[in-house]
Amino acid sequence: MDRLIPRRLVKHEYDENGKVILLKPKFRLPLLQKYLLPRLKRPYFRIYLDEIGSQVWNHIDGQRNALEIAHSLQKELGNKIEPVYERFGLFLRQLKTGGFISY
Q: In terms of DSSP H, where are the helices of 1-102?
């Protein structure tokens, strides 16, 4: 976990409460993204993150490793995120599986 540096692969925006909304393109192939996405009304799947998920996403900057991020989250969120390593690891795994981040 101390060598993994998560990097974002998708765009995001914020809702009115400051929570993160991940924007995943509906097509993966670059050719389809170039020609079809601009023609669609809704070119992205919108994934709404909760407070903790939003905090995690905001800490993923491509510079800090997963262990540093976990420590920061533990300091900021305290008991809300306990057990921090299990929850954080599971969430990173879900983001990786969904194609939202890479290492």
A: 30-35, 51-59, 66-77, 84-97
Neighbouring C-beta atoms of residue 101, cutoff 10 Å: 23
Does residue 95 carry a pLDDT above 70?
yes
Instruction: State pLDDT tens for residues 35-74.
Output: 777 777 788 899 999 999 999 999 999 999 999 999 999 9
How is residue 16 annotated by DSSP?
T
Token pair, residue 71, equals 């420590």
At residue 23, what is the residue type? Answer: L
Number of other residues whose CB lies within 10 A of the CB of residue 84: 17
Distance CA 23, CA 88 (A): 21
Record the tokens describing residue 8, joined without a space: 């974002």
| pTM, rounded to two decimals | 0.83
Is beta strand 7-8 parallel, antiparallel or unpaired with respect to 101-102?
antiparallel
- Asked if 19 contacts 54 with a C-beta cutoff of 8 angstroms, the reply is yes
